[in-house]
Amino acid sequence: MYQRALFQTVRERLIEPRRFIQVFAGPRQVGKTTLVTQVMQELPFPSHYATADGLVPTGHIWINEQWDIARVKQFQNPSTDFLLIFDEIQKIDNWSELVKTQWDADSLNGIPIKVLLSGSSRLLLKQGLSESLTGRFEMIYASHWSFSEMRSAFGIDINQYVWFGGYPGSAGIMDQEVRWKQYISDSIIETSISKDILMLTRIEKPALLRRLFELGCAYSGQVFSFNKILGQLVTAGNTTTLSHYLDLLSQAGLITGLEKFSNNQARQRSSSPKFQVLNTALIAAQRHETFNDIKNQSAHWGWLVESAVGAHLANHILTERITVNYWRERNDEVDFVVQKNDKVIGLEVSSGETHKRTGMEAFQKRFQPYRVLLIGKTGIPLNEFLSFNPGDLF
Fold this sequence. Notes:
This protein has helices at 6-15, 32-42, 59-76, 95-109, 122-132, 147-154, 158-164, 177-198, 206-218, 226-232, 239-251, 265-269, 281-284, 291-294, 298-314, 317-320, 358-367, 382-385; strands spanning 21-25, 47-51, 82-87, 113-119, 137-141, 255-258, 274-277, 323-329, 332-340, 343-349, 371-375. The protein is an alpha/beta fold. It is globular and about 70 Å long.
């Protein structure tokens, strides 16, 4: 079975002496449970796995029961470490306080139970961690699968990746496109919105959140002011609500909003967002065209290529400590601006033979970036760029 590079990170953290609770977060259907299972099988000590997915059990009783099972198992093997895994832990009310109590009790009593928490809602995990577990945890983030991972595991080519995206569970049904679209819509989109956002967060206008997601996919790569978005929505709302909903969709691994690059942080934060899907499968699943149809439509295909590049960059924001923005000034525009520490790189995406360079020239003159790069036929080939780790560009 294919192992992601992240496998080694998780395994090494768990083999280390017991220091911190390990928190493993990421979108739905990116293989978190599979990876955890792989790690469990290769650890030199026993473990216990428990999931809160499905019917949510009574919080404090369930967590305490699972912890006591782990203690009994560890007592039977007192000479070794022991791993306790809680999957989808954010679905338990007051989970962080309960985990803190049990973790501190083991620390006080010298019980060497290591703990790994995993979940699909990074926002809710972070809220719980900041409330009760400050100083007791480390975060490991599982992003959407990259092109190089999907190619290595399933043999897909660059065009397939641009359209079908990076959900490993759907790779086996890509040749049945109607079925594939239904799977993405039902098993990923609807489940992420209904279970990871609506069931776990107070949402006053769920129809507005769903419509925002649809617009974000339909207009990925385009800059939209929140006031302009409100003008397209039947459901009333305000810009603060939309900004909050976009953040929730981002934390669930669906779509995000890129800020405009500026040397002025206040102006950057007040800028209109550029919609960006975090997996191009979310676009394809909602369109009526098929893969064979759309790859022959140059304008639409170029838009998908740009969305694939943006998704690749955005999915490395947490792991590589980079920021991803766009830049626009009057008629000049740069598709993506990537920054790490004090180094800035401008990226332009082209799917044709020729490309206007005025935006990049204006950006270079104004900001003197570390690098400017063109992605496409006359620059870095798309398949090569999507195989890079963006952090290595610096």
